[in-house]
Design brief:
By secondary structure, this protein is of the alpha/beta class. The chain is about 45% helix and about 15% strand. It has helices at about 15-55, 70-75, 90-95, 115-125, 145-150, 185-190, 200-220; strands spanning about 55-60, 105-110, 130-135, 155-160, 170, 175-180, 195-200. The chain has a 7-stranded mixed β-sheet, with helices on both faces. Strand 3, helix 5 and strand 4 (about 155-160) form a beta-alpha-beta unit. Helix 3 (about 90-95) runs parallel beside helix 4 (about 115-125). The protein is elongated and about 90 Å long.
Length: about 220
């Protein structure tokens, strides 16, 4: 059967072209508007997150030591548990550390708090790259968790100096800084007057990241004579 060709004499091509052009302009304008709104929302959310993180401060001592099950599981099933079952500075700090997704660089003078050590090991087992810098004279102190870190396969380096490696800071994912007077010790949690500042300030994070990398290279055991 032969194809039937309809006459095109009555088709208004200029009008069709104008409509097509108008539809295209409207579609492009809508796309640009939606993209602009989305970017604005994301920018506001990031700014809010940065502002909140920059101003976040934790103070110690805690009135009671937080229950370990409450910290890591959110609840406790033990009867007559003598530990705190509410948010404390320690539980908040553990939560912040566990938010690491790629890397955790720990540079702390003394580490014997088991809750913080367990959080570090948990991150290592989940695939987060964990590196630890500490003071050589403190590695053998009572309750030190350094050998436990090494048994778990966590990279640990230390100074060899009569002076202290006295830093107390952590860099999370190279985007977040945890810094203050706080050593990772039970005494710092429940006894001392201590502070911890959590910040996403880019310049601060970069400065502490650079210091960590500098010390990490300086304490490389393969480069020691």
């Amino acid at each position: 059967m032969a194809a039937v060709l309809l006459p095109l004499t009555n088709v208004d091509f200029p009008r069709i072209l104008r409509i097509s052009w108008l539809v295209g302009v409207l579609a492009h304008t809508t796309y640009v508007f939606i993209k602009s709104v989305k970017q604005s929302i994301e920018s506001d959310q990031e700014k809010t997150l940065n502002d909140q993180s920059t101003s976040q401060v934790l103070f110690f001592p805690d009135k009671m030591l937080a229950c370990k099950e409450f910290i890591f599981e959110g609840c406790c099933h033990r009867k007559n548990c003598q530990f705190a079952h509410e948010e404390t500075s320690l539980s908040k700090l553990v939560t912040i550390l566990l938010e690491a997704r790629q890397s955790l660089d720990v540079c702390v003078f003394t580490i014997n708090c088991r809750e913080l050590a367990d959080a570090t090991i948990q991150l290592h087992k989940s695939g987060v790259v964990v590196r630890v810098l500490t003071d050589d004279e403190q590695m053998g102190s009572t309750g030190s968790q350094i050998e436990k870190f090494r048994r778990e396969g966590i990279q640990v380096r230390h100074d060899l100096s009569s002076f202290f490696m006295h830093h107390k800071f952590v860099v999370i994912d190279r985007k977040r800084l945890v810094n203050g007077s706080f050593n990772w010790t039970r005494q710092a949690v429940t006894g001392n007057r201590e502070n911890v500042v959590i910040s996403r300030d880019k310049q601060l994070v970069e400065a502490f990241s650079e210091e960590f990398e500098r010390l990490w290279l300086e304490y490389d055991p393969s480069k020691r004579s």
